Amino acid sequence: MSGFKSDFLWGGAVAAHQLEGGWNEGGKGISIADVMTAGAYGVSREITPGIIEGRNYPNHEAIDFYHRYKDDIKLFAEMGFKCFRTSIAWTRIFPNGDEIEPNEEGFTILRCGI
């Protein structure tokens, strides 16, 4: 094959912990990603027993899709993407994991007009 068919769908994919941000907004519960510290060469990432003042938790902001999803989706479109796959942290929908009813506010990020 010399190239892609004209109807090939270029797209992108992201995962909740890599992009969401808004870690303590919209009724979201704490997930493992929320208590995992940053690492560096020679410094391992660490899962802490809770949020510790002064520690760097990079997933708290990530790329802040929670607040910037409209702009991010426009950027995907400008790049020519025709499809977009994302995931959402289950702690947005069931903050503690034992709820009978979902956290309706957690669905807001899913209703972003995609």
TrEMBL record:
EC number: 3.2.1.86
Keywords annotated in UniProt: Glycosidase, Hydrolase
Organism whose genome encodes this protein: Salmonella diarizonae
Catalytic class of the enzyme: hydrolase
One GO CC annotation: cytosol
Annotated GO biological process: carbohydrate catabolic process
Alphabetized InterPro entries for the sequence: GH, GH_1_N_CS, Glyco_hydro_1
Any Pfam family hit: Glyco_hydro_1
A single GO molecular function term of this UniProt record: 6-phospho-beta-glucosidase activity
Domain of life where this protein originates: Bacteria
Family statement drawn from the similarity comment of this UniProt entry: Belongs to the glycosyl hydrolase 1 family.
Protein name according to UniProt: 6-phospho-beta-glucosidase
